[in-house]
Design a protein that fits this description.
Layout lengths: L1 E4 L17 E4 L10 H10 L4 E4 L4 H4 L8 E5 L6 H4 L3 H8 L7 E4 L1
Parallel strand pairs: 1-2, 1-3, 3-4, 4-5
């Protein structure tokens, strides 16, 4: 499974997957930093990824997710600080096992 972490999340979120076989990168690592949401999602469609993880709760209302080649996980947290996100690590990894294209998953 190939997972991309949005640039609005700390890069350390990648460590949530250290005990898995998943390939995980951040948006800047794949050269898509600074893209608008629409352009980013279109570019991700071409990257053959399985899952895009973000904390941007508005993205699902502002962008079209039908016919996307990847699933999207939206983390609902009080902040994007790593300390605030750590409590969701197990749930995030668990949901990854059942990801399907153009589906949106909410944590929690």
């Amino acid at each position: 499974m190939k997972i991309i972490i949005d640039e609005c999340l700390p890069k350390r979120v990648i460590t949530f997957f250290k005990e898995t076989e998943y390939e995980v990168w951040s948006i800047p690592q794949i050269g898509l930093g600074g893209y608008s949401d629409k352009d980013l999602l279109d570019a991700l469609d071409k990257k053959e990824i399985d899952l895009f993880i973000t904390i941007d709760g508005n993205i699902e209302y502002q962008q079209n997710f039908k016919n996307r080649t990847f699933g999207t996980m939206i983390i609902r947290s009080v902040s994007n600080r790593f300390m605030d996100l750590q409590q969701y690590q197990d749930e995030i990894v668990k949901v990854c096992k059942n990801v399907k294209p153009n589906m949106i998953y909410h944590i929690p």
